[in-house]
Amino acid sequence: MKKTLILATLTLTASSLAFASGFKGPQNSGGFQGPSQGVSTVKEVRDSGMFSDENPVTLVGHIKGSLGGEKYTFVDETGEIVVEIDHDKWLGQNVTPETKVQLSGEIDKDLTDTRVDVDMVKLLP
Known about the structure:
The chain has a domain at 42-123: CATH 2.40.50.200. It starts with a helix and ends with a strand. It contains two helices and five strands, in the order ααβββββ. Helix content is 21%, strand content 37%. By secondary structure, it is α+β, with helices and mostly antiparallel strands. A five-stranded mixed β-barrel has the order 1-2-3-5-4. A hairpin with a 4-residue loop joins β4 and β5 (114-123).
């Protein structure tokens, strides 16, 4: 019985140490950091006849101004478009017209307008 208890304790200690030294957790988890499929410029969104509603979008540029509520004017080197950013997507980040940002989301088309529904706001250097 004593040998079994000692063996169990040693096994538990060894597995705990292995787990603790190898566990990275969500704060260290990564992902792909390269080009994505889908639309990547305002011009492509505006000319999105070839793209369907809800097509993925990743834009890099600047938020030029607020239009009230959750709507903003976004601009890149190809033009400007209205983007919709829900309050919870800001994640405490402060953005000015001079801040370069990457917006990820999807095309949101209706009968009279095309805009981008933003899922993620990322500050860029």
